[in-house]
Every structure is written in structure tokens, then in C-alpha cells.
Amino acid sequence: MPILVVDDFNTMRRIVKNCLKQLGFTNIHEAVDGEAAWNKIQSTPVEFIVSDWNMPNKMGIDLLKDVRGDERFKNIPFLMVTAEAQKENILEAAQAGVSNYIIKPFTADLLSEKMEAIFKNYSS
Amino acid sequence: MKDSKSYSAQKHALHHLVQTILNGEKGSIQAALDELGVGKNRQLKSELEAIQEGASYYSERLLREFQSTDSMAQTSLADAPEKLSAIIELTEKSANTVIGLAEEQESSLREAERYLHKMKNQLDADPTIAWKTRESFETLYQRQLQLIALCTALNQNILMAQSYQDLAGQHAKKVIRMIDNVKRNIVGFFSLFRENSETNVIELNDDSKHTADSKDEGVSENEISESLNQDDVDDVLKSLDF
Questions:
Q1: Nearest CA of chain A to the CA of B188: how many Å?
Q2: Suppose B180 and one of A20, A54, B211, B242 were both cysteines; which one would form an S-S bond, judging by CB atoms 3.0 to 4.6 Å apart?
Q3: A10 in reach of chain B (CB within 8 A)
Q4: 3-class SS of residue B241
Q5: Which of B164, B173, B233 sits opposite A105 (nearest CB)?
Q6: Chain A within 8 Å of B95 (Cβ-Cβ)?
Q7: In chain A, count of helices (H) and strands (E)?
Q8: Least Cα separation, residue B157 to chain A (angstroms)
Q9: Neighbours of B223 (CB within 10 A)
Q10: Greater confidence, A51 or B185?
């Protein structure tokens, strides 16, 4: 399954990538911000998005809105992994159609748990 | 219609005044105020000197905090964002180095695991090896697998611990925006004292514009609502039928 990891910090992209590899995912793409992610989605098949919130050029929440607003991509599971932990953020993301939400710092187990929950939701 | 030359000169004078204060150039305030055409305003001068004194105090405190290297000792409020960006870059390099080592370690562990399995398969396939030797190897094999699993888990924890760099970097970026905001607010403050209202709308430099943009992006340094932990977030999501 092609997964897109979006974060402006290389460190975090590598960490998420490593976690995903541990979970058995090998087809992982990266983008440094929402804008690069949006371009990547248009050109590369992506079936799951793991995105930070706070990024230059285009924020994760705007990327989510773009994805949900586009007929071609609106069903792609979108997991927000962010340090933005205010209730308003969660509500805004939920309203925009986020599939789940993880607060940094997180554990590999939590990532696995949330991804499983998303897959379960999508299959039911 | 505004006089563009005069506007440009006033804008330059304002920036000069801000830099004078931020750089802690004692005695230069009068010259900067003269350049702005408000040199006779004693009260303004006195208030600005108090601000400069406060800025110098905090700048010196910052210097003391960063005295571990010569370059850091050069820090002033004006170039603090640049220094903070350098810190972000350095911590990111450090975290990436650790991640690189953890990845190599992970690769070595997988190699060790493969080698161990290969040895076991060879032993299992060799009927000439005595039962006692086989049993000893089995004990060793199981123990090695346990150790490899433990090392893999520890390695994963080392990897995950690097995510604090990302968090530290995000906090530092917010501080950078705060400093930019302080600069911007100082410019706004000075504009209130202008005798001529011609410069009420002050064109900000690119950095300040970026600050304004970043506020529009929903990033606030003065957020008053409380941060939630993962359990709280899950509760909020559950209440929304997630």
C-alpha cells in the first residue's frame, strides 16, 4: 500500500517511515509540506496519508481539506500526527474529515493501533 | 496623496530606531528620533530608553544562557531568530545522526537474525550432530532470539525518542515568530508617536509579513486553551463517533 508521509522535519519523516516499515509497509513516499504533498498526490498513487499539522506553504489541515474536497482523493485515509493538541484543532480536523489524530510524541504501538482502527472503519 | 520619498525616509528612520533599540546602542536613540523628526519629544525618548534598557537586560540574560560557544555569545535580540534557526538545524542533524545509527543497528539485528536462522536450519538438517549439542544450540538459539527482540525494541525506543527534536524545533519556531512579532509590535508602537499621521500604515518588511501570514495560518503563540493528551484527544474523537 503506497503511504505518503508529510512533515517539514526530516527527523519526523524518518521516524514515521521507520515505524511504518516495522509495521510491514514498504511503499512509502515523503513530502516536506502540504503543497509538496498535494503535488505528490496528483502524480503518484497514494492510499494512505500521514501528515503533520504545522508546516510552511500549506498546513496539514489545508491539505486535509483539499484532499477531502477532491472527488479523486476524498476517500484516502488521512491520519494527522501533530503536536497541535488544542481541542479546537481536534474539532477542526474532525470537521474537515480527518480519519484519526495522534499527538506527538507518540509510540510505534499507538501508530499501529490508530492505523488498524482506520482500516477497520474503512472496511466496515 | 502621499509623498513617497518622505514615506520611504520615514520607513527607513523607523527601522533605524527599532534596530537601535534591539541592538542596544546606548546614546543612539536621540539620533534616531531626530531622523524621525521627533527629537524634541523628551517623554518619548525617556520611554524608549526604558524599553531599550529592558531589551538589553533580557538580551544579556539570553547571552549568559548561550555562553557555551563564542558564536552564541554574539547573540542579540535582533539576530536571536537566526541563532534559534541554527539550533533547530543542529538538533535536527543530531537527531538524524542518531536515527541513522539506529537504522544501521536495525539492519545489523536483522542480519544477525537471518544468520541465526540459517545456522539452525543447517544444524537441523545435519543428522551427524549429537542430540546434546543440538539441545545446547537450541537453548542458545532461543536466548539469542530474545536478545535480538530486546535490542530491536530498545532500538525502536531510541528512534522514537528523536521525535522530541521535532517538538523542540516546533517550539523554537514559535519563539522565532514571537520575536518577529515583538519587532513588529515595536514598529507599531513607534508609529503611534509619529507627529505626522502620514505613516499610520507602515509597510512591514518581508519577515514581518511572514509573521502576519503565520498568524493567519492558525498558529498562535498566545493560545489560551489547554493542550490535550492522547487520551483526551481519543475522548473528543469518540464523542464525535470516531
A1: 26
A2: B211
A3: yes
A4: coil
A5: B164
A6: yes
A7: 5, 5
A8: 8
A9: 14
A10: A51
Q: Assess B229–A contact: CB distance below 8 Å, yes or no.
A: yes
Alpha-carbon gap, residue B29 to B44, rounded angstroms? 10
Instruction: Give the residue with greater pLDDT, A121 vs B144.
Output: B144
CB distance A9–B225 less than 8 Å? no
Rg (CA), chain B: 31
pLDDT of residue B78: 72
Residue of B104, B167, B230 to mutate, testing the A interface (most A Cβ within 10 Å of its Cβ): B230
Of A14, A90, A105, the CB nearest to B236: A90
Label residue B116 by pLDDT band (50, 70, 90): very high
Cα–Cα distances (Å) from B177 to B75, B89, B217, in that order, read 17, 16, 12
Among partner residues A14, A18, A90, which is closest to B96 by beta-carbon distance? A14
User: Torsion angle, CA of B7/B8/B9/B12, rounded to 10 degrees?
Assistant: 120
- Total domain count, chain B: 2
Instruction: Give the chain A residue nearest B225 (alpha carbons).
Output: A86
Instruction: Determine the structural domain holding residue B204 and report its residue range.
Output: 4-74+178-221
Query: Does B31 lie in the same domain as B86?
Result: no
pTM, whole model, 2 decimals? 0.62
Query: Which residue(s) pair with B224 in the sheet?
Result: none
**Chain B residue nearest residue A107, CA to CA:** B160
Q: Are residues A120 and A99 in the same domain?
A: yes
Residues B89 and B157 in one domain: yes
Mean pLDDT of A113-121: 92
Inform me whether the C-beta atom of residue B222 falls under 8 Å from chain A C-beta atoms.
no
Q: Both A82 and A100 in a single domain?
A: yes
- pLDDT category, B185, cuts 50, 70, 90? confident
| pLDDT tens column, B149-166 | 999 999 988 988 888 888
In this predicted structure, what is the pLDDT of residue B66?
57
